[in-house]
C-alpha cells in the first residue's frame, strides 16, 4: 500500500468510493440521497484541502481529506472501498492524517463519525466527546475535551 496526494482528476472516483463505503452499511436510497452533497468530493476541494489516497497494486483503495479551515481541523472524509475494509487501510490513512496535522502544529482532529465507524475511530485512539463528535489527539494520548 502506498499513500500519496490525491489528484483533482480523481474527484469522481473518490466520490464513488465515498458513496459505496457509506452504502455498505445498508442505508436506504432515501438516506443516501439526503447525504449526497456531503459525500461529493470536488476537484476544487482536492486542490485546496489536504487530500490523500491509499493505493493497493495501483488501485485507489481509500482516501481522506482534511478541512483545514475549521478549528480544530476536521477529518472531512475518510472512506475505504468495501472490498478493502478490515485490511488496515483506514488505520493507515488516519495515521497519515494525524501526521499531517501534527506537522502543521494542529494538536487534535475533529471527527464527525458515522455510527458504524465510531468503534473504528475509538480503536484508533479517538475519544468520544458529546453525542456527535470524536476527537483524535495527534500529539499524545491524553483526553481531549470539547471546547
How would you describe this protein?
Strands 1-2-3-4-5-7-6 form a seven-stranded mixed sheet. The protein has one domain (2-137): 3-Layer(aba) Sandwich (Aminopeptidase), CATH 3.40.630. It contains five helices and seven strands. Helix 1 (11-23) runs antiparallel to helix 2 (29-39). Helix content is 35%, strand content 27%.
Defining key terms:
147 residues; alpha+beta; Aminopeptidase; seven-stranded mixed β-sheet; 5 helices; 35% helix; globular; disordered C terminus
Write the layout of secondary structure elements.
Layout: E1 2-5, H1 11-23, H2 29-39, H3 43-48, E2 51-56, E3 59-67, E4 73-80, H4 89-103, E5 108-111, H5 118-123, E6 127-129, E7 133-137
Parallel strand pairs: 4-5
Antiparallel strand pairs: 1-2, 2-3, 3-4, 5-7, 6-7
- As for the CATH topology, it is Aminopeptidase
What would you say the CATH architecture is? 3-Layer(aba) Sandwich
Work out the number of β strands: 7
Order of helices and strands: EHHHEEEHEHEE
Number of helices: 5
Q: What best-fitting shape do the alpha-carbon axes yield?
A: globular
The SS-based structural class is: alpha+beta
Helix content: 25-40%
Can you tell me the residue ranges where pLDDT is under 50 for at least 5 consecutive residues?
Answer: 139-147
Strand content: 25-35%
Biggest sheet strand order reads: 1-2-3-4-5-7-6
Question: Distance between the terminal alpha carbons, to the nearest Å?
Answer: 36 Å
Text of the CATH class: Alpha Beta
What is the CATH homology-level superfamily?
Gcn5-related N-acetyltransferase (GNAT)
Amino acid at each position: 500500500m502506498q499513500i500519496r496526494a490525491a489528484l483533482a482528476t480523481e474527484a469522481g472516483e473518490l466520490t464513488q468510493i465515498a458513496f459505496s463505503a457509506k452504502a455498505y452499511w445498508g442505508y436506504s436510497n432515501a438516506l443516501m440521497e439526503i447525504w449526497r452533497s456531503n459525500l461529493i468530493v470536488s476537484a476544487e476541494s482536492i486542490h485546496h484541502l489536504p487530500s490523500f489516497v491509499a493505493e493497493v497494486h495501483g488501485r485507489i483503495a481509500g482516501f481522506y481529506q482534511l478541512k483545514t479551515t475549521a478549528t480544530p481541523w476536521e477529518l472531512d472524509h475518510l472512506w475505504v472501498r468495501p472490498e478493502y475494509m478490515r485490511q488496515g487501510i483506514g488505520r493507515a490513512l488516519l495515521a497519515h492524517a494525524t501526521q499531517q496535522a501534527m506537522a502543521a502544529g494542529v494538536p487534535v482532529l475533529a471527527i464527525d463519525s458515522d455510527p458504524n465507524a465510531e468503534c473504528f475511530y475509538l480503536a484508533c485512539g479517538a475519544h468520544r466527546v458529546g453525542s456527535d463528535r470524536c476527537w483524535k489527539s495527534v500529539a499524545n494520548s491524553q483526553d481531549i475535551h470539547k471546547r
